[in-house]
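Final report, closing paragraph on structural work. Over the funding period we assembled a curated collection of sequence-structure pairs, and we close with a single example.
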Amino acid sequence: MRSTRRSLLTAFLTLPLIDVARSSPFAQAAPKLSLTPACDDEDELTPEREAGPFFRPNSPLERDLYPAAPEGERITVAGFVFDTRCRPLGGSLVEIWHADENGDYDSVGFRLRGHQFTDAQGRWWFNTIIPALYPGRTRHFHFKVQRPGERVLTTQLYFPGEPRNAGDRLFDEALLLDINQTGDGKFGRFDFVT
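Its predicted structure, as stored:
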């Protein structure tokens, strides 16, 4: 039986609190979803990318964004926020915004925009849709991540296997999501290192 986004998220959320500086709890619970390579290096920060012209401050405290785009293909995007020694950073702000199923951004309201704070284990997740392509860009999510009291990391996450990746001047393989197909959509994983 094929896993669902909910079952993968449930496994992700029920991980025991362990010392992630020595091992990845998510990798133990689901070996096929390996730890983001940047954290394995223990000194590699997540690469920065520009926010672009569509960022709007004061997004709502919301992790379920998909109801605003019922025609879009569902995806759960999840991961951790770690420091450079792979220690989880609880209380970190994680903000997302992206294009809709037609390749448009909401420039008036907060459709497909939200933020949350990581839990004590540094975990974050959003239930949303896969953004459509639009002229000049490959498929991507925008993120801002800020650990408590530190500077803001602004970056973008990309989809593997996208034909437009090679032609996008902002694309970086280090920012690829680890995507798994489930019975009810996709599950993407990325761990931010700040």
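The first strand starts at residue 74 and ends at 82. Confidence is low (pLDDT under 50) at residues 17-38. We thank the funder for supporting this effort.
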